[in-house]
Amino acid sequence: MTVVSRILSASSKILLLPSRGIATTPVSHIKPSAFSQIAQSSSKLRNVTMLAERKPFSADFFFRQLFDDNSWTYSYLLADINSKEAVLIDPVLEQATRDTKLIQELGFKLIYALNTHMHADHITGTGYLKQLLPGTISVISEASGAKADKFLKDNEVVKFGRFELKALCTPGHTNGCMTFVVEEQGIAFTGDTLLIRGCGRTDFQEGDSRTMYKSVHERIFTLPDNFRLFPAHDYKGNMETSVAEEKQYNPRLTKDLDAFVELMANLNLPYPKMIDKAVPANRECGLYDIPKDK
């Protein structure tokens, strides 16, 4: 018997009403296991739907997730395989030579080096990449307060090859946080605004819990449920999530607004160890921290 059949069979025992000699099973006589089976079956159906609808990447779209094990930062290289134009999201200074080597080996031309926000836990590699790969354009939100070649406004589009990356303002962790969406591929890069089963902290650098809650629920959770989400960090070895997963399982953002604000106010996190160095450097696009011997 299929999952659906079991649900219908169990449900019919509950919903039948007494009528002209039809035998019914009172709810009180139904075994607890029947309710459990319905709940488990519904959960299985929900999970199958959540995973089955995931979009595959188009054949001409390149995606590579990169990792910095010191700051636990993910960087993302995206490219049009035919035109060879590429973008790199959230590069890390110490990994700029690695990223440059990869881009050159693949025959790509780096058009844009983008930051989702002005980071406090590592120095951006955008300034160094501009030196290593001449012609690269540094990009960040207009509201970030950082220097760059190009500043993005809400809903502005960045093009590379035939692909488009749309920038959504999602403040709360910082004023300049953005989520980058590649709609055709069903993916979004959420920076520190939304992490896997978590979110960025809101106790420094213009952080505001109510603003973050609104950003997630109105800008990210309104994307299609099957969209794959890629954060700027993960500290438990997870690599990606989805809108549907976070709407159902995120232990912070499934709470109501007031409960979320209270939770965020009582995290008691340690002072960020890199913030005093990273923020001033990132205001300058990481330019004055470029290694002198490179």
Can you describe this structure?
Helix content is 30%, strand content 22%. The protein has 8 helices and 14 strands. The protein has a 6-stranded mixed beta sheet with strand order 1-2-3-4-5-6. A 6-stranded mixed beta sheet has the order 7-8-9-10-13-14. A two-stranded antiparallel ribbon has the order 11-12. β1 and β2 form a beta hairpin. α1 crosses α2.
Oligomer: single chain
* Largest sheet strand order: 1-2-3-4-5-6
The helix content, as a percent range, equals 25-40%
Order of helices and strands: HHEEEHEHEEEEEEEEHEEHHH
Topology:
Layout: H1 3-15, H2 32-52, E1 61-68, E2 73-80, E3 85-89, H3 96-105, E4 109-114, H4 126-132, E5 137-141, E6 150-152, E7 157-160, E8 163-169, E9 178-182, E10 187-191, E11 194-195, E12 198-199, H5 209-220, E13 228-231, E14 241-242, H6 243-249, H7 257-265, H8 275-283
Parallel strand pairs: 3-4, 4-5, 5-6, 10-13
Antiparallel strand pairs: 1-2, 2-3, 7-8, 8-9, 9-10, 11-12, 13-14
